């Protein structure tokens, strides 16, 4: 089994945390956002939660098909993902 097959996507995290099955600390939301930002660059376009894979060990990888069109702003999408993570976790910490 490859490491990606043993991983979950950020979309899965949103589903589990949104259903209130597992709590998400604000620190973990920040860590995920930083790891996602580290895997992007200014020209990489919007980050889709389906393309963010999180391994059992906590490493984060962005996997995009080469044929995908580059649209949107990477920085704005990472900020939006952080906001979604904080909201899903129920954090009242100011972003």
Describe the structure.
This protein is mostly helical and 95 residues long. 39% of the residues lie in helices and 8% in strands. The protein is built from three helices and three strands; from the N terminus they run E-H-H-E-E-H. The chain has helices at residues 10-18, 26-38, 74-88; strands at residues 8-9, 52-54, 60-62. It has a three-stranded antiparallel β-sheet with strand order 1-2-3. A hairpin with a 5-residue loop joins strand 2 and strand 3 (60-62). Helix 2 runs antiparallel to helix 3 (74-88). The longest helix has 15 residues, at 74-88. The chain is globular. The model has no long low-confidence stretch (mean pLDDT 83).
Q: How would you concisely characterize the structure shown here?
A:
The protein has 95 residues and is mainly α. 39% of the residues lie in helices and 8% in strands.
Overall mean confidence score, pLDDT: 83
Span between termini: 37 Å
Helical segment count: 3
Taking pLDDT < 50 over at least 5 consecutive residues as the criterion, the unreliable ranges are none
Number of strand segments? 3
Q: What global shape is seen?
A: globular
**Which bin fits the share of residues in helices?**
25-40%
Task: Give me the strand/helix succession.
Answer: EHHEEH
Topology:
Blueprint: E1 8-9, H1 10-18, H2 26-38, E2 52-54, E3 60-62, H3 74-88
Helix pairs in contact: 2-3
Key traits:
mainly alpha, 3 strands
């Amino acid at each position: 089994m490859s490491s990606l097959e043993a991983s979950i996507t950020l979309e899965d995290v949103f589903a589990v945390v949104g259903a209130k099955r597992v709590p998400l600390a604000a620190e973990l939301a920040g860590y995920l956002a930083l790891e996602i930002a580290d895997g992007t660059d200014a020209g990489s376009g919007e980050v889709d939660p389906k393309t963010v894979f999180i391994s059992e060990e906590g490493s984060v990888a962005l996997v995009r098909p080469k044929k995908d069109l580059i649209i949107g702003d990477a920085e704005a999408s990472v900020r939006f993902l952080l906001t979604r993570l904080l909201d899903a976790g129920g954090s009242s910490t100011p972003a």
